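Hello,

Our lab assistant flagged a job as stuck in the queue for most of the afternoon. It eventually completed. Since we weren't sure the result was trustworthy after the delay, we are filing this so someone can double-check. Below is the sequence as submitted and the structure that was eventually returned. Let us know if re-running is recommended.
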Amino acid sequence: MSLLTQIIAYIASPLATLLAVWVAYLSLYRSSQPHLLVHYQPNPDVPSIIDLIIENIGGGSAIDVRFSEPLPINCFGIEQAQGEGSFVPKSGFPMLSAGQRYVFNGGQYAGLKNELKNGLAVRVSYKFLNPIGFIRQHSELFVLGIEHLKGMPTRTSANQAIIEALKGPNNTTIQDIRNELRTMNDQLQLLVKKGEPEKQ
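-- returned structure --
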């Protein structure tokens, strides 16, 4: 082996080791870093209701989650805003674990549109522990809006449809069956009472 080859081997070997360690650290760093999402989406069960979703889809816990602006919730009104609603405070949450999500009743289209206008820019800041155990700070910028939900059809989920069929004001086949079963139950109870021997 020539002298040049030995020198290259001495230099290349530590560099390859350092590169492998750095790649492994980056992989651990990314898997331990939180990734927050803040957005509005239609409620899957109740037509016209819009939910505010705050979730952590990353691999680590977000600590001391704070918002640069309060987040509008409970803002109702379909054609025009009704009332003032309320807000998720800027102080946020003490922690948002990996995979954890908060679902708030955001309200309805006109009520939220009145608060969000053409988009509300919100910076979410939080802390997290890196793989070595040091606390790091991070922030992400979101622009919250509901304009894209304006033309979405309002659908009723299967669960909500069953509830409305059982409890709703409109007469349905399920309600007819329920009423018939109640009538049969009442008649059976009367027959049982008639068949009981009289006490002397």
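-- support follow-up --
The delay was a queue issue, not a problem with the job. The result is valid. The chain has a mean pLDDT of 82. The radius of gyration is 30 Å.
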